[in-house]
Sequence to fold (334 residues):
Amino acid sequence: VVENSTVNIILYGIGEIGGRVAKLLLKKENVKIVGAIDVDKRKVGKDIGAVLGLERSIGIVVSKDEAVLSKVEADIVVHTTTSFLKTAYPQITKIVKHGLNVISTCEELSYPYVSDVDLASNLDRLATRNNVTILGTGVNPGFLMDTLPIVLTCICQDVREINIERVINAATRRLSFQRKIGAGMTVDEFKEKMAKKIITGHVGLGQSIGMVADALGWKLEKIEVNMVEPVVAEETIESDSLWVKHGQVAGIRQCAHGIKNGKSVITLDFQAHIGAKQEYDSITIKGTPYINNKIVPCVNGDIATAAIVVNLIPRVINSSSGLKIMKDLIISPN
Ligand SMILES: NC(=O)c1ccc[n+]([C@@H]2O[C@H](COP(=O)([O-])OP(=O)(O)OC[C@H]3O[C@@H](n4cnc5c(N)ncnc54)[C@H](OP(=O)(O)O)[C@@H]3O)[C@@H](O)[C@H]2O)c1
Fold:
């Protein structure tokens, strides 16, 4: 981005995160939203000002498909429609074929080699051929359980093991998030929803482990992502939007391991439940020196995700072409 030049942005997905990104962009100078795409019928055909609940119109109407990509001049697309690489792939390839950079909150794109090496290589080739950059980012995956620990290992002479925990008190989060983690369900309902893949747990633990191992040059035997487990309320808990009775599900816990020489050398522990006693993000590096970094309270995911997307837009635009991973984009100059 050249100083004082305007960055033209298309939003692809205007849900919670796309909406927060849009609001943040509207506060910035030298930034213009020039297009918006979303499939939600309640949003298509409306000015994004109305979609965002603003009292003014922005002059950009939400389109239902990618036709807008060829109608407007843009520098980058902010992509926030899905967690899964297979779903994101056709959307992102269309964007790239229009010669546009992409920054996406798709969890599996943050380190796509764990989900599908072929799709990741195709994206890299396509981006290079079209002279654009693709980046998957966000708070987690994208920062707290991968980029931040990787940055901390820069001051270690050696690293033997890394343990990372994120504990969220879901009482302070939006109702849609509380529902997503099964809060207020019976344990049987939770298990039924898990079997039907309505409750999927946290997407991205395997990607974070892959990214950390890659940064450290560790060849892992395997990455194990455990099944998500219900956290059961030991007492009745009241939150602004939801009550969880004693014995009902308060939320989820999910662990994942990067295994080397038969031992977990990277351990991730993700917990999100209503009534968590303390909210924190903790990184422990068993190495030289020993490091424990604890952020209290844990970082608010929605705020941080919108921030990291907006903050990294200039980096993505100015980066060399190809599919980038946070570890490369943050630490290396290009
Ligand atoms: N990496 C991270 O740290 C991080 C953090 C936060 C969120 N995320 C991920 O980012 C994604 C967005 O999050 P969110 O909370 O904003 O989700 P959301 O509220 O569900 O918003 C997604 C929006 O995209 C629309 N959409 C879905 N498929 C589309 C398509 N093919 N074309 C155009 N629009 C489409 C949805 O419409 P419908 O509702 O009609 O489907 C919805 O309006 C999620 O997958 C989330 O898991 C990642």
Notes: The CA atoms of residues 175 and 241 lie 6 Å apart.
